[in-house]
Design brief:
This protein has nine helices and no strands. The chain has one domain. The protein has 220 residues and is an all-alpha fold. Helix 1 runs parallel beside helix 9, helix 4 packs parallel to helix 6 and helix 7 runs antiparallel to helix 9.
């Protein structure tokens, strides 16, 4: 079991443990999403463990599109400005169309879809920045942002996708014939570190949902 997979499991179990506190919010959809994430990662781990020759890029390519769709759905329900909610809703069919186009005409089935990653990552980073912008508006400025569960989701997403943009932009170079092994090591190390940050942030957000609910239920 890898460290990254361990943190994904921890995030999943934390979400399940906090189910009663998540079920009244859209955050509850993290449970099936994280379950799917762990299944995909486990399949990838088995393919490496048993040296499966067939490329499994297509599994990650499909899942990546699901990831972007899920995150956009969360932003759509957490944005306060109607314009931003509309942009997030338009992004969902856009990323699906882009992914299908990339699948058919550009990178195909035998390559990791770095174009889709770069395209989707740009919008997720943009959405994170827009979310932070909303919280510096006059009507929100007096609220404690650190106690907002979705703030920590955004922190994780921002750091993860900023890092992903960099390593995926260099993906083909890192896999070049001159530095195949070193490239794989660098890519894997950075990617695992980003995954730890991402799923740790998710876990914090679930715990905050639990704490916030306890405070709201406590007698005044």
């Amino acid at each position: 079991m890898t460290v990254a997979f361990l943190f994904e499991l921890i995030s999943l179990f934390t979400a399940i443990f906090c189910y009663k506190d998540l079920k009244a919010t859209k955050m509850v959809f993290f449970i099936p999403f994280l379950l799917l994430t762990c299944i995909i990662e486990f399949i990838g781990y088995l393919s490496i463990l048993y040296a499966v020759r067939e490329q499994n890029y297509w599994i990650y390519n499909v899942f990546t599109t699901c990831e972007f769709t899920f995150y956009a759905y969360l932003f759509m329900h957490n944005f306060k400005l109607p314009f931003l909610r509309k942009v997030a809703s338009y992004f969902i069919p856009l990323i699906i169309v882009f992914s299908i186009t990339n699948f058919i005409f550009l990178q195909g089935t035998d390559h990791f879809h770095t174009y889709t990653i770069l395209f989707g990552s740009f919008f997720i980073v943009l959405f994170c920045c827009c979310y932070f912008y909303e919280w510096i508006l006059p009507e929100q400025i007096n609220q404690n942002l650190l106690k907002q569960p979705f703030f920590w989701v955004c922190v994780g997403l921002l750091l993860f996708y900023l890092g992903s943009v960099i390593i995926n932009a260099l993906f083909e170079y890192l896999r070049s014939s001159d530095m195949v092994e070193e490239g794989k090591h660098i890519y894997g190390l950075i990617n695992r570190s980003l995954i730890v940050v991402l799923y740790s942030s998710f876990s914090i957000s679930f715990i905050l949902c639990r704490n916030n609910r306890k405070i709201s239920l406590s007698p005044s």
